[in-house]
């Protein structure tokens, strides 16, 4: 399988250097306790932050050599969903989702809004399209944020705190949504500390503890790891 | 004590020049990306929305101030003409003073208080809530979508509001003097217009465009410096307002010196 993301020279705590290659059309979950560095790694893999000592290639773009122009192109192919669901607060839901289409494409406003409605329906948003973001629950905001990021038809989507602010029922719905997006051809990289939800939708896992980065090809390998941090983390969650 | 004072003076001078340098770069980038972005629908719509807010909303307060200045400056000045004589020369001086000095400065001060503070609060809160970063991650150029429309709209509105202010202040004053004191004063309507040569009109247009652009650029520049805490919004708003006022007077002085 072709790698959509390649990160080189990621250094683990014990000095080991690892190269990461994440294949296309898979769901990769970055797991770890709060403040373990999941978001930092996610941002690095997405090319949002650049570490010159760790060359990273995302969707064919070398992140350390990005110009303003190529950065814009990369952002259109690698969507990044922020954890705080920062929608534009004075735009309605439909305006928020149609904004990237109006800005980046030649679609007429009416068609852009039609496409925005389709995207919102496809992610399962059932609220008011003309509401302002302040009227929405965190779960609804997350759905709108994902729909907005899907507007430009990216190849890969990075989602920080993929299961934050969700109850158990909502978590199951989001697991189903992420799997649906994968079947539609998207690659997903999720950062979360929720191992139960991660187990349900993840295909491969990156575990971070004390800045140590460990890669597992499936949940079985992760859960049987003898690494003390992973054992402690899983025990604490159980 | 003296050394400390000199040190402080030096630091403040360096900071002032650094601020002007960075603001100039910011302004230049806003203009560059803004002109590029005129082809973009979302940017054009943002300019339209800003023009509506900045321009239309300021009309009532400017009308009030212009009428006040007409009654308090233009009418009494015209009344003095009888005592001094040389009507034509004096109406020319009055016309140039109102059109080239009073109108741009009064409009700029209203724009600073109304729009610059609104820009800092609006953009500063957007920055604080991560909305600006969210837009950047959607490959939306912040300069093109947020900064340039505000700069362009402020420049356009400053020019038109200044024309509006000057017209009411000057002709309103002549009209009041004509109605209250002598109908003869109504003849000054043509003289007031003739006093403005094409070169003075060019200076008027340039000055207003620069004023408007600088006011909005200064507000956007400060707003995008809000990062960590909600108290930074009023702090940056205060800085933006004070700095914009200072810049307007400095630029006005520069126009005055260069047009002599």
Q: What would your notes on this structure say?
A:
Chain A is of the alpha/beta class. Chain A is about 40% helix and about 20% strand. In chain A, strands 6-7-8-3-9-10 form a six-stranded mixed beta sheet, with helices on both faces. In chain A, strands 2-1-4-5 form a four-stranded antiparallel beta sheet, covered by helices on one side. In chain A, helix 6 (about 170-185) links the parallel strand 7 (about 155-160) and strand 8. In chain A, helix 4 crosses helix 5 and helix 6 (about 170-185) runs parallel beside helix 7. Chain A is globular. Chain B contains nine helices and no strands. Chain B starts with a helix and ends with a helix. Classes of the chains: A alpha/beta (about 240), B mainly alpha (about 260). Chains A and B meet through helix 2, helix 3 and helix 5 of A and helix 2, helix 4 and helix 5 of B.
Features:
heterodimer; A: 238 residues; alpha/beta; 6-stranded mixed beta sheet; 4-stranded antiparallel beta sheet; 10 strands; B: 260 residues; mainly alpha; 87% helix; globular
